[in-house]
Design a protein that fits this description.
Length: 461
């Protein structure tokens, strides 16, 4: 149901005010004021669509009120009432922005027709503005459809949302589909120091579930508000917009209210952007699914060497950006040729698949496991220094040695593994040399008797 228009009648004559009120009954919500000063107070208290004012009044005149309304309430239409209108006064009022003028004594039917016409024109202009803004928003949404990286898509959607709603501060919190149970975050309008603190808080405490909000809503208090308040950052009322793909992608955009509330038009616009973003997410999911299949090893269902090279480059850039460490583990089964010779390559492939599952169980979701080739595997340990990398490698070595792998006849197969460990930036700042250092450390482990872990630092000894 449409909201009824609001009209303010300003006249020092009680009779005129009552005639106007009766004439507009049912057409608009009418408030009557006996002076321009009271009318300005009424507009501050509640905006109006139209002000109809007498030209000559004690104190502030109708022309003075027109000037104030145009300056202080530019979205409000204005019409003048006068008992002695001249061409000059009418032209002057129209030039100042008045929509029309009426001559006293006013006729109720005439007043009703003028008000209907002004409000209809106002509605038409508003609709044209809405359509123009909608078209602009739709044109902007084309950018989303060109995004095939989901993480980038959330950030682009956040930028579009802030621009369209004319806000400057917000954040996108999302579940990274390529890394299950892992979250990502993008910021706009926060100081770098605050953004870093927010990121650390969100990534460690995880106060918000990407599936927790089902529809666009203004939220004044939530777990996110509390988490940020604990580090001295007030978020204030926020417009929360959920984004979901068709498979596993899910995220939330948080737009800070700032100086003004979110109106129905803004929420409609936010939902429009969200709709296009969700289509783009679904498209990105399909693309990444096809791309991922090209990066999956057929035997073990771990990532392949092609993916490893891209992931290593990406993780090095990330480690450099945030001043973090990255450890690389190169793993090679000891004497695996005997398994193939004794049980056949089919059993050998089954054992490699079992080994892949064991290795995946030894690392975190944010780490990367890849089959480098043959019986060699590589693991990227995100945000991990060298000492921790060696500890993880030793745990993997012991786990593999203690695991019972099964042959085709239920025979127990025991494996041993040699592991080399290198770390960015300790042993190299480049992808190829970092991987090569871990590879050489692995061969050193074999030279030292196999079933051991060796550091790339030992290569200098």
């Amino acid at each position: 149901m449409d909201t009824q228009a609001r009209v303010v009648i300003v006249d020092d004559s009680r009779l005129i005010r009552e005639i106007a009120r009766d004439a507009l009954a049912g057409r608009a919500a009418v408030e009557c004021c006996e002076s321009a000063e009271l009318a300005l107070e009424a507009l501050v208290r509640e905006p109006a669509d139209l002000v109809i004012s007498d030209l000559e009044m004690p104190g502030m005149t109708g022309i003075d009120l027109l000037a104030r309304v145009r300056r202080e309430h530019p979205g409000t239409e204005f019409a003048l009432l006068t008992g002695n209108a001249t061409v000059e006064s009418a032209i002057g009022a129209l030039r100042m922005g008045a929509a029309d003028y009426l001559i006293k004594p006013i006729q109720p039917d005439t007043l009703a027709l003028v008000v209907d016409r002004i409000l209809a024109q106002r509605a038409l202009v508003a609709e044209n503005v809405r359509l123009r803004d909608t078209l602009t928003t739709l044109e902007s949404c084309r950018t989303l459809m060109r995004c095939l990286d989901a993480s980038e898509l959330y950030a682009v959607a956040l930028d579009l949302m802030l621009h369209s709603l004319e806000r400057s501060r917000g954040l996108a919190l999302f579940r990274r589909g390529s890394i299950p149970l892992s979250d990502g975050v993008s910021f706009r309008g926060f100081a770098e120091e605050d953004a870093n603190r927010i990121r650390d808080t969100l990534m460690s405490a995880k106060p918000v579930d990407a599936d927790s909000v089902q529809e666009t809503a203004v939220i004044e208090e939530s777990e996110l508000h509390g988490a940020l308040r604990s580090i001295g950052i007030e978020l204030g009322p926020t417009l929360v917009v959920p984004l979901r793909g068709r498979e596993i992608e899910a995220g939330l955009l948080w737009i800070c209210r700032e100086e003004r509330n979110f109106g129905p038009v803004e929420i409609e616009r936010a939902n429009m952007i969200a709709g296009h973003a969700q289509l783009a997410l679904a498209n990105a999911e399909r693309y990444n699914h096809a791309k991922e299949r090209a990066f999956i090893d057929d035997v073990t269902e771990a990532y392949n060497a092609r993916y490893l090279l891209q992931a290593t480059e990406h993780e090095i850039q990330r480690a450099e950006r945030y001043g973090r460490k990255l450890s690389v583990l190169f793993l090679d089964l000891d004497r695996f040729k005997l398994v193939n010779d004794n049980y056949g390559h089919l059993v050998g492939s089954q054992v490699l698949r079992q080994l892949s599952e064991v290795l995946a169980g030894c690392i975190r979701q944010i780490d990367t496991l890849a089959r480098y080739g043959g019986d060699e595997f590589t693991i990227l340990l995100t945000d991990t220094d060298h000492e921790v990398g060696l500890t993880v490698a030793e745990r993997i070595r012991a786990t593999v040695a203690d695991t019972r792998f099964e042959g085709d006849r239920g025979d127990a197969i025991h494996l041993e593994i040699s592991i080399g460990v290198s770390t960015y930036p300790d042993h190299s700042e480049r992808r190829d040399t970092l991987l090569d250092a871990a590879d050489k450390a692995m061969y050193l482990a074999k030279a030292r008797g196999r079933n051991v872990v060796c550091s790339a630092g030992a290569l200098d000894e």
